[in-house]
Amino acid sequence: MLRKDMLEIYTGKKKVFVTGCAGFIGFHLSKRLLDEGFQVIGIDNMNDFYDQNLKYDRINILMKEQNFHFIKGTIENLELLDYIFSQYNIDIVVNLAAQAGVRYSMKHPEAYVQSNLVGFMNILECCKKYKIYHLIYASSSSVYGDNRKIPFSEDDRVDRPISIYAATKRANELMAYSYSSLYKIPTTGLRLFTVYGPWGRPDMALFTFTNAIINNQPIEVYNNGNMKRDFTYIDDVIESIYRLMKKDPPKNPQVPYKIYNIGHNAPLRLNYFIELLEEALGKKAVKKFLPIQPGDVLETFADIEELENDINYTPNVTVEEGIKRFIEWYREYYKLT
């Protein structure tokens, strides 16, 4: 049973708990929610998986807003989470905290177990205890593994992950289903497809390629650049999440559970992506061709019909425009002429 004070979730400044708020997507979502008048409670452990300065710069922007409350900590700490839930009277949880990166998971699987499994279980336990109105959580397109059926549909089989990262994200979906079934917690999973844009993660291709090209260093191009990715611009991702928050949560009386693909629905070959980046930078890349890496898939392609039908929105920022916006931000952030 939901709390009685949740008769209308979107009147006044309701409280949203955003985990991973200093991360790429968490930062953008928190900023959007603050702009829309929500109160945002954010948590992040500020780890050194990538440049901490970038994380602190994101947080410093959010800290300028009076409706933003930041806690430095980890979701693996159940005692801390319980304290946050008890003190802030949270309405909605958006769980974006996770150990990311397919290749990193090959060398450090323990980090994924702690953050993506133990941490997510703690989130579920607190949502159950405090009767949260809606839990939205990040999954990943990686759960589709080497699925050959194109485009990827939410109804496809996803029981053959080819990386530890993907396995933990699929486990999140199954854990959420169990809690939705047992305790009637409304949960919505987001299978995110190659998100990019300003303030992005430095370990992802667009960021690493840009940095290398500008500094006259070679870029590593796997599988001769023949892989395809459904590149999804950050603003389209945030708009999708925001609309999912505004609509009613899943209401199936047996299992109030839903999963959506969040993608652009237009995969591009990596070689073409690099050509667009070269054009935006006005500079050619030095390419070092390498074989496909363990855990990588040949193509990702999101079927977004379910998302379009439910939120009346279609991701619309082209990769050409998205790369241009990223380069503008990159030059400004790093003070390049």
UniProtKB/TrEMBL annotation:
Listed Pfam families: Epimerase (PF01370)
UniProt cross-references to InterPro entries, sorted A to Z: Epimerase_deHydtase (IPR001509), NAD(P)-bd_dom_sf (IPR036291)
CDD domains: UDP_GE_SDE_e (cd05253)
Keywords: NAD
Domain of life: Bacteria
Residue ranges of domain NAD-dependent epimerase/dehydratase in the record: 16-263
Protein name in the entry: NAD-dependent epimerase
Native organism: Niallia oryzisoli
Upper taxonomic lineage: Bacteria, Bacillati, Bacillota, Bacilli, Bacillales
